[in-house]
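Archive transcription. Copying these from loose printouts into the bound notebook so they stop getting lost. Printout 1 of 2:
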Amino acid sequence: MNPDGWLTDTRTSYDTVAAGYADYIRDALAGAPFVRSGLALFADLVRAAGGGPVADVGCGPGHVTAHLRELGLDAFGIDLSPGMVEVARRDHPGLRFEVGSMTDLALADGSVAGLLAFWSLIHIPDEAVPGVLAQFRRVLRPGGPLLLGFHAGTGSRLKTEGYGGHPMKVYVHRRHPDQLAAWLREAGFLVEGQLLTDPDGAAPGAMLYARCPGGR
């Protein structure tokens, strides 16, 4: 893996597949009741903490951002890929989407009431995850909830093609929930819950709930 080029490779790959990926993922939540329940719980946690703006970091084509808005949250999306942001704005014209990297969020300290990274940490190499979590901790207000969704397991693979047969060059990292929970604690978060999805299937997933200390 090129330590200096993975961000560029990820951006370029998702610019290339943006339209195809949006079509692929458009109805995914409809067939994922446990994921929808996990998002509903996150919405409840944000409201219980006082409410406010919620950042969907690595939002892709904006389907989760839109779902959070339907749940009553003041959600906006951030994605590394300008192509993805263009598709998100096209498909969800009433919502806010902006280009940005989770490695250096252009958000003020303590400016969001909640943050989720839903299957977007999967392209972040291990050595960069602590810095990303530090960014999440910085922008969350005290007491704000954090939700991470990711592929559960071990190992990494290089994805070279996807979503309509277009070329890609991204590493997909699977991680054990205990590993991410340890990184969260090292970043200063309080880990509050865990949900496994499809643990016996071909693509097990996990959701971790954490909270920035302080607040109510």
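Printout 2 of 2:
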Amino acid sequence: METLTLNIPPAVGLTDEQFYQLCVANEPWQLELTKEGELIIMPPTGGESGIRNSDINIDLGLWNRKTKLGKVFDSSTEFKLPSGAYRCPDAAWVKRERWEALTQEEKRRFPPICPDFVIELRSESDSLEKLRAKMREYQNNGASLGWLIDPQTPLVEIYRTGLDVETLNFSVDNPPQLSGEEVLPGFVLDLTLILNP
């Protein structure tokens, strides 16, 4: 099934509470809301995408468990970005001090914060151009580092604050290792397992 987009007229709009209740009432669908009012309905992931997402979150979670520098979130976490958009990256990380500055209610619902680090993993139903726009949106809302991983092309695009996007084209037989740089010190993601689920 493909991703669907519905336009919500500005006169109708959705409050934060209404969007939250809409998401709760429509599990297992994953819903996102753009700042322009487009309601994006994403189908559940397939097996290979699920394996890839899981491997990414395991690696990021194990690194974070050792460093205790922040909090790791999986693809079911909805963030309310400063722009007003609601987005669910495939993997995300927030610095500990930024997370701890939120209230308990903000932590419990859809955290009103842009992650410091995000990963989007392209699945077969994803448009590469829409994922690129989503990555730019994270960047414009304060993400310091982001990786768009496309196993189909295969390529990785690296999004950094204030810099042009870096694109790594590679073969599935010789994938790169990605460094968390100064944002995630010591974190390295080996794409070998991600590309061969």
